[in-house]
Amino acid sequence: MTSAQQQIGLSFRKLDLHIHTPKSNCFKGTCTPEEIVDTAIEKGLAGIAVTDHNSTEWIDEVIDAAKGKPLAVFPGVEVTCTGGKKSIHIIGLFDVDKRAEDVKVLLNVLGITSGYGEEGTLTDKPPIDVIDEIHRLSGIAVLAHVNSDNGVLSDMRGQARTRVIQHSRLLAAEATDFLDDEKKKKSKRVVDLLDGNDPTYQRKLAIYQASDNLCPDCSGQHCLEAIGSHSSYFKLEQMNLEGLQQCFIDPDVRIRQDFELRSFTYPHIKRVRITSGFLDGQTFEFHPGLTSILGAKGAGKSLLMEFIRFALNQEPRHPSIAEDHTAKLRERLEEYGVVEVTFVDETGKEFDISRTYRELDESPYDESVPYDPAQVFPVLFLSQNEIIKIAEDEQAQLQFIDQFFDFRTHRSKIRSLERELERLDKQMAEGLQAYSEFDDLSNKIKTLEIEIKRLDEALKHPIFEEFKQLELKEKALSNQVSHLSSVINNVEEARSQIRDRLTPDIPEPLARDPALLRNRDLIVQAHEMLEEQFSRLIGELRGQLAKAEQEYAQWRSTYAAGKKKYDDYIQAMGSDYRGLALNRERAVRQMGELQRLQGIAKKKKEQLSDINKQRESLLDSLQNEYEEYTSERQKKCAKFQADSHGRLKLRILGSSNVDEFRSRLLALKRGSYLREDEIDAICSRIRPRDFVLSLLRYHATHKTSLIEERAKEADIDLHRMKTLADFLLGAIPYEESLALQYKAHPQDRPEILYDIGGGDYQPLAKVSVGQKCTAMLMIALSDGVMPIVIDQPEDSLDIRSIWDDMCLKLRAGKEKRQFIFTTHNSSLAVASDTDCYLILEGSASHGEVVHIGSMDHQPVGEEVLKYLEGGPHTYDLKFAKYDREQNLSEN
Description:
Elements: E1 11-19, H1 33-42, E2 47-50, H2 59-66, E3 72-81, E4 88-93, H3 100-109, H4 127-136, E5 140-143, H5 152-155, H6 158-166, E6 172-174, H7 181-186, H8 190-193, E7 206-208, E8 232-236, H9 241-249, H10 251-254, E9 255-257, E10 268-275, E11 283-285, E12 290-295, H11 301-311, H12 319-333, E13 338-344, E14 350-356, H13 373-376, E15 380-382, H14 386-391, H15 394-402, H16 408-458, H17 462-500, H18 514-573, H19 575-643, E16 648-657, H20 659-668, H21 676-685, H22 688-701, H23 705-714, H24 718-731, H25 734-743, E17 747-755, E18 761-763, H26 769-780, E19 788-791, H27 802-813, E20 819-822, H28 826-831, E21 836-842, E22 847-853, H29 860-869, H30 872-882, H31 884-890
Parallel strand pairs: 1-2, 2-3, 5-6, 6-7, 12-20, 12-21, 15-19, 19-20
Antiparallel strand pairs: 1-8, 3-4, 4-5, 8-9, 10-11, 10-13, 13-14, 16-17, 17-18, 21-22
Helix pairs in contact: 1-2, 11-12, 16-19, 16-25, 17-18, 20-21, 21-23, 22-23, 22-25, 23-24
């Protein structure tokens, strides 16, 4: 096999493990070894097994023809042995480094010394003995075409057949009936009979298909063209017999028939490089499926996890876990340390990012990373003990659940609505303030009107009457100019509001959806059109204002002349008259300012109704968004519950967490002398939106009846409720009270119940730490394509639950989702069928990768045994103590 075929970790490889050459006398036509190799490659095969009838003569020729080409050749032979109606065919497969002479030893042992290539050449040994001899010579025995002529299930009967199938050294069988629908309905296909559940055989075998390169003309002959006509996919790293044996031992995850293999594109971390610190100079390659990181304590396993979290900007949220994370970066990556990550997104596109650890400037990314990796490439990270912290905190549980669906759209809409409400809050607060201001100004204006009227009587004169008319016109012209200026300000404010409205985000999974992209372009065009129209309109309005200001300026000369005439008259009349005139002038100026302020207050009062309607509409939209958010969470919880197969019950208690409302109200009520239990009663029984609305209506009307209903709801004395209302309205800025309606919106609460046995479901708060963590890991492994990176997930689990709650899910999910674990647990790593192991070793100052790959070859297999079982001696001792042979026979 060429180096191009070498790869890190397991992957499915297409093999045809039963082909014949012209050396089998039933081969149709002729061909060369080179043609056999080229045909196999053309059919997409990565490997073949040369298995002529009772012959080894073409093995070396085909092996030599494959040298330098992307094709592995397993030497083998199809042995005809006694048993059944006529005879039974058994295939012996040997390692790729063997030659014809190695396989010929088997034929000699079986007494086949002539008649090579003849299907009828027979060893007098029964199938079980042939299987034993193949095993003794380090080969693998396979039942050939087990459901066809010369197959054990077709040509043998009774106990003899059962004993062959139950023989412990038999691992696999070929079958040809996978697509037989009638047999499938009756569960009579080979794969159904030999799945371990049949009461007769009680044995699970690896079942796969091979071509036997049978000619399609049903002649029973073999031919070149039929090579690869039927094949199977075997999950291997290196093409060798040890890898095949692993596939036969664990066929559920290692073998796929050629018609059932599916490939998935999903996000995964491909590579990580570390520069500086404990892992300086190390490159870590990760498998798209399951990668298990092994090593002694202090080898850097946990550091690697933390460095990846740092590079992808997905640091822990829990304070103690976050503190440990930061300490590891500071002490073990060190200042100016660099972490480079290569990852693949859900479309298959590859990205490279690099982040430098700088404690003082928040560790910047390279300029080539114009996005937040946490948004583009979310990963579920769990550091050591982090899952315990999550399991013990409702808010953390909710954040955990949110990681399994695209909640960003909801969050974005909520933030957008809150920003719009904050903008309106300022106007609303001004309108509310205007209510009291308007009344106060009205009283002052009435007082001034009386004073000015008294002064007018005292100053009565034709010149004075003439000047009063001039004042009246000057005031009217000034108001007109102010009005036009206000109109321009309002239009500019409207333009600013539209500018501030962000274009709706397109969810990341739909970033390339044509319809959404077309609509986004329409929105951009609409904004451009509005901007153009606003610019034109504002320009025209400013032209109108300029004309009005010119009119006003021209009038000012007339007014100035009249005022001079009036001032001269006042001067001539003496000091008493001048004093009255000055008093009147001051009163008129004060009246003008009060009327101006009253006009502003009146306008704000009049706008209050519209602003309130806008706020109510936004609050309704916000409520709907929260309800949709809750609904999405509930759907996800229903999925988690279904995937738990009755182990969990989950639901979302919508808008039931009032902690934020309580904390904000407690902070605001300081100085009101209300008790905390009264605040608790309000928060638990009244929505923030309704509470604030009642306060505002009470403020506007001063009707106590408007807060009486809220007092009854909370079961609080009306006087006490009024005390709180008066305090909040008098001592707290309106914006803070208004913000309660949405900033303190009750949040969802998760309810997770765990079956501790016999259908007794208990909330997480009442179960053991191991059960808490089991529940959270069941959720984590339930659904989605987001990569999962966990540091020693087994630490907090009951060892008895690892197979059911983790291994089974990993085995089923790792073909369409990436898992990266550090672990010391052999069940998790080996029984889950790790695709690639990273073996780390470390000294006091440096850690490094010393081995990488699957356990199907050495030295990785030996290292796995050492780190997970303590080495061969320890494992053998445990194996013997478990009395495994007896247990196997009982199963």
